[in-house]
Amino acid sequence: MTTTATFSRYADLPALIGLMEGDDKHDAASHSTLDVLWVLYDRVLDVTPHTVEDPARDRFLLSKGHGPAAFYAVLAAKGFLDVPTLRRWTTFDSPLGHHPDRVLVPGVEIGSGSLGHGMPLGLGMALGLRAQGIRRADGTAPRVVVLVGDGELDEGSNHETIAAAGRLGVDNLTVVVIDNASASHGWPGGVGRRFEIEGWWVREVSGRDHEALHEAFTPARTGGPSVVVARVRNGS
Questions:
Q1: End-to-end distance of the chain based on CA atoms, in angstroms?
Q2: DSSP assignment letter at 51
Q3: Interior CA angle at 146 toward 142 and 149, to 5°?
Q4: What are φ and ψ of residue 231, in 5° steps?
Q5: DSSP string for 2-19
Q6: What is the enclosing helix (H) or strand (E) of 152?
Q7: Which of 106, 170, 175, 198 has the fewest CB atoms within 10 Å of its CB?
Q8: Dihedrals φ, ψ of 109, to 5°?
């Protein structure tokens, strides 16, 4: 798939999202992920429209799949989707649904939307890559990055994954938590503390600060999983 250079910049993302008309875009959920998605696809992930089938590609899993408009816009800006496809989103015979579908959308790794599935699937992928001995050109294992919402961490499947990944030392797994204070109960000490006590490497940054996000996503391998808590609150 290709897109035009006219729509290849971060500044073009609002216009791309605007092509997807309708009342069910979950605008707030989508907008909260926009900057994280852009930094990942623009500066961090080793995956392109030409390498979506390469076993050594990085994998991105949008567990927060009920607001995919920003994800679709970034995929279009990076050439995974043709821009005109955005205009047909959620229409009959369109590949772009209210939840992303890995079978229909190039570059999508999982069908998501049911909260609590992305992180366990990401752990399984990371362990699978490790077991197969798949390596990138620099000798490291392909990276698996999972984006979740802070409210999604209420799901028991995620508690189990946080504990298991820390104990297994899965250093090619990164979770990014969009923290907009939407969790029902929260955690003593904050979201980052929930991961830290299980042995994760933790960074907490503004979810709108591209340089801080880039720095948080590119640490040296630490021998265990990492989490980036991206704070997006009160329109910040």
A1: 33
A2: S
A3: 170
A4: -80, 120
A5: ---GGG-SGGGHHHHHHT
A6: none
A7: 106
A8: -90, -30
Strands (E), the chain: 59-62, 144-149, 173-179, 201-206, 226-231
Q: State the sign of the Cα–Cα–Cα–Cα dihedral 178, 180, 186, 187.
A: positive
- Which residues have C-beta within 8 Å of that of residue 25, sequence separation ≥ 6? 17, 67, 69
Provide the 3-class DSSP secondary structure of residue 66.
Answer: coil
**Mean pLDDT in consecutive groups of 10 residues from the start of the chain, 236 residues:** 61 91 67 94 96 96 88 95 92 90 93 85 96 90 94 89 95 94 77 94 95 91 90 67
pTM (two decimals): 0.92
Distance between CA atoms of 85 and 97, rounded to whole angstroms? 11
Distance CA 82, CA 105 (A): 11
Q: How far are the Cα atoms of 27, 41, 111, 131, 160 from residue 66, in angstroms, in the given order? A: 10, 20, 11, 31, 22
Confidence (pLDDT) at 26: 61
Pair of tokens at residue 100: 């992303």
pLDDT for 169 equals 93
User: What domains, with CATH codes, occur in the chain?
Assistant: 5-231 (3.40.50.970)
The DSSP H or E segment spanning 168 is helix 156-168
Burial class (CB in 10 A: 0-12, 13-18, 19+), 160: middle
